[in-house]
Amino acid sequence: MKDSQIRNKRSVTTLSDVATEAGVNKSTASRVLNNRLGNGFSVTEEVRKRILAAAEKLNYRPNLIAKSLTLQTSRMIHIIGGHYALGDLGNIYQTVVNNVTSIMDGSDDVFDVTVDMSHHDRQTSELPPWKIDGAIILARANSPTLTELEEGQIPYVVVNGPAGKSGSSVVPDDENGAQIAIRYLAELGHRIIAYANSRPDYLVGHSSLADRHQTYLREMKKLGLSIVPGHDEWLKSAEKFLTTAVIENGATAVLAYGHMEGLNLMQAAHKLGITVPGRLSVLCFCDQQAAAAMSPLISFIDLRSSDMGRIAAELLLKHIKKPGNAEPTTIKLAEELVIRNSTASPQK
């Protein structure tokens, strides 16, 4: 059976196939394809081109696992927690991943980025089987993953969550954002402000759940304003929430945990005949990218997801370039108020 027939039956082209096609030994093909010339080893330009042409002809793709075991650096960044980006439409992690990839593509030392979209068991490491130069973690990683990163001295940065002792993190200041939101609504003249909490299955235990809710309670108390019942319950039904908060308790404004809660409240208000922003002002936590795609235009507290992704990627590159010397750090980004069509002074 001919070599080409063997390859077709096997379907995957190997390094040995490329070497045979180019008429060189396997180690020579490997050095050329991995750009590892020098240190006493060289080939003619004709041989180099022949190897590259053979790889292209055979559609050769290197085995990442095997390659990473032989090279000191892999030129690969792995993003952990990619399944969060598949959650709510337009959530912040989609923007974070896009910005991380953009920074890595534009760096002097270009890195390939892989994204783990799987839901892992809590007792199983989320790291890939191949070598990586660094990791970006979305929200949080499980204990085995953090242990492996720490013990392996692999640089990593957590976006919107806490890091271990040697990792860094980039997080939005949710307490600051909630404070800005409540004070803005109070300055408009609202005295009965409700809070719509997140659903129970979204990032259970994430710090944002407590930070936004507790800041709502604290600021309302500081300003001597009425705390509306339902603030400590999950938003299961937007219609029921508005019936209780607005119709029964007289709320003229509501701060929602996220943009999906905000959109659900806007739809329910329309169905119940509650005008926005006439009878009710709606404000939520969101980011520029999701807000730009939403209609109607909701006022929001900008979580600055683009900045989080960019800063996290730049921080990781800094740690990779100075392995063992870069100091772990936590960068907290101040959130910003963006006023659009859903907030106004209460009706007289």
Number of helices: 13
Biggest β-sheet description = 6 strands, parallel
For the record, the CATH class of the largest domain is Alpha Beta
Query: Helix proportion of residues, in percent?
Result: 40-55%
Summed up, the domain count is 3
Can you describe what's shown?
By secondary structure, this protein is of the alpha/beta class. It has three domains: 3-62, lambda repressor-like DNA-binding domains (434 Repressor (Amino-terminal Domain), Orthogonal Bundle), CATH 1.10.260.40; 76-172 and 306-333, 3-Layer(aba) Sandwich (Rossmann fold); 174-304, 3-Layer(aba) Sandwich (Rossmann fold). 42% of the residues lie in helices and 15% in strands. The strands form two sheets. It has a six-stranded parallel sheet with strand order 2-1-3-4-5-11, with helices on one face. A six-stranded mixed sheet has the order 7-6-8-9-10-12, with helices on both faces. β6 (192-196), α9 and β7 form a beta-alpha-beta unit. The longest helix has 17 residues, at 305-321. The chain is elongated. Residues 4-10 have low confidence and may be disordered.
Structure characteristics:
alpha/beta; Rossmann fold; 12 strands; elongated
